[in-house]
Amino acid sequence: MINLNKPETAFALNAVRQASLLVKHIQSKMVTSALTKDDRSPVTVADFAAQALVGYLLEQTFPSVSLVGEENSKVLQTPAEQETLLTITRFLSETIPQTTPEKVCVWIDRGAGEVENSYWTLDPIDGTKGFLRGMQYAIALAFVVDGEVQVGVLGCPNLTDGYKVNLDGEGSLLVAARGEGSWVTPLTKTTEQFKRLRVSERVDHSQARLLRSFESGHTNAGQIDYFNQALGGEAEPVRMDSQAKYGVLAAGQGEIYLRLLSPGREDYREKVWDQAAGSLIVEAAGGKVTDLDGKPLDFSIGRRLINNRGVCVTNGNLHTAALQALREIDA
Question: How far is C-alpha 49 from the geometric centre of its chain's CA atoms?
Answer without folding.
Answer: 16
